[in-house]
Amino acid sequence: MKTQVAIIGAGPSGLLLGQLLHKAGIRTLIIERQTPEYVLGRIRAGILESGTVSLLREAGVAQRMDSEGLVHHGVEFIFDGKRIPVALSELTGGKSVMVYGQTEVTRDLMQARSDCGAPTIYGVQQVAIHDAKSDHPFVTFEKEGEKCRIECDFIAGCDGFHGVSRQSIPREVIREYESIWPFGWLGLLADTPPVNPELIYAHHERGFVLCSQRSLTRSRYYLQVPLSEQVESWNDDRFWSELKRRLPDELATKLVTGHSLEKSIAPLRSYVVEPMQYGKLFLVGDAAHIVPPTGAKGLNLAASDVNYLWRILTQYYQHGRSDLLATYSRLALNRVWKGERFSWFMTHLLHDFQEKSDFDRKMQEADRQYYLGSRAGMMTIAENYVGLPYEKVGV
Ligand code: RFL
Ligand code: PHB
Questions:
Q1: CA distances from residue 370 to 47, 73, 81, 339 in whole angstroms, order as listed
Q2: Nearest ligand for residue 142 CA
Q3: Taking burial as the number of CB atoms within 10 A of a residue's CB, which of 92, 114, 129, 366 is the most buried?
Q4: Is the whole model's pTM more than 0.85, yes or no?
């Protein structure tokens, strides 16, 4: 098989890159380890930054998002039982975020790819990257026992944190930065109306709570839990009653409970690999960086990597700009580190840290008082939450 850009992984990074390159007339072939049903079954992100929304529009896959997604102009914080609205749009000169689930983004991208006839091979095994430093890189894999080979100009490693792309780069040419958080998030999805029109990020001495949503009839809630917690020990009743204990009375009494559609525990991790390029191999999205979900940045950083790589590859194919290829890692990482910082900041601000000293707890409290008690503080939160601007490529 032969293509221009071989894409490993059909998550949001791989599919969005494939779609944008296809629109620019560049041939791609995507290979994915799982089945499409499995990929669509993973419940993950829910909040899209304005830049991600624009990119999905540019990719021509925004029709359903624009009609079914919910535009949010604000978000709410709670600490010491006090509710503090943060007026995102007012504080950012009119920007907003979109509530539209990663599952739906992925479904729209899969549909667009099949409509335009661009190839995706699901259920591949033994994926390996070869000669990434040469002018003739190639990817090998097995499909139903048959060995296959893709010859290409470039390889996009969009295969998530546990994929092969990052692992195929020699360890001596990369540097990894990592911080593991001492708790996880227990998430529950239910067909119940959200407890509040806006998302709520709540600090509580029993642990952090997030009240999110997928639509006006589907809620997504998260509870901070110790890393030792097993999802099996949380039946729906236990989840709902713990959630109510961590919310102020007026919200707890309004909360509509119901049967869970999904429940899972995710550990929290901060991770970045540098650089994000090795010869003709580019790392994109979770393959190169992970953030704790508190800032709602994971999928959005994946989209920002795609934004840079798609523009660079398009300029290369359409205008011969081979000089831009080496700029990818710097452009992507500049924004990644800011997203890491905001996610780290939000996680620190809102979670309960059992091992913190009394002094550190007071600092955390002062941070909440400062950031949510002044316009300057709220503006900082708002401009990061709606998404920092992308840098221009090739100037
Ligand atoms: P993905 O989605 O992990 O997709 C990678 C794909 O690669 C495939 N793969 C392989 N394919 C071929 N060969 C191999 N050897 C392969 N190895 C792996 C996998 O099967 C998979 O299909 O990475 P991608 O595309 O970079 O997308 C990243 C996002 O999924 C992730 O950052 C977000 O979900 C993070 N995230 C959130 N991000 C946000 O922007 N806003 C949010 O509100 C938000 N909430 C969340 C989140 C992540 C969560 N969890 C569970 C980690 C909430 C949670 C609970
Ligand atoms: C979600 O809806 O899954 C969600 C929303 C905001 C976050 C994290 C997750 O910060």
A1: 25, 22, 17, 21
A2: 1
A3: 129
A4: yes
